[in-house]
Structure formats: C-alpha cells, structure tokens
Design brief:
The protein has a domain of 36 residues. 33% of the residues lie in helices and 7% in strands.
Length: 58
C-alpha cells in the first residue's frame, strides 16, 4: 500500500501572524468548535470504503 499525506488547515488563530499567507480568522472560537465537528464528519465519510493502514497527526 502506498503512503499518502494530506494537509488540513484549521483557519482559526488567536492572532494573525505577519508572515502568514493562509486564510485565517481570529477570535472566532464558536466557529472553531463547529468547524472541527464538521471536519471530523467529513474525514469519517471519506474513509468509508478506503483502506487506511495508519494515520499520523501533527
């Protein structure tokens, strides 16, 4: 089985860094919780029927 990698950007920060080019939103803690909830659902759906031997979270 070939390893794959994905990058998942969580667009919520306490403070926007000067050097950051990513889309991000500051002080939106209520949106963060909902975003994570739906992100987890999407990951579970995408794994259905796909064989993933392992995962690494960073």
């Amino acid at each position: 089985m070939k390893d794959i990698g994905i990058y998942v950007h969580i667009p919520f920060c306490k403070k926007k860094c000067d050097y950051c080019d990513f889309i991000s939103y500051c002080n939106k803690d209520k949106l963060l919780e909902e975003y994570i909830k739906y992100l987890k659902q999407e990951i579970r759906r995408s794994r259905t029927g796909n064989k993933i031997s392992s995962r690494k979270e960073i």
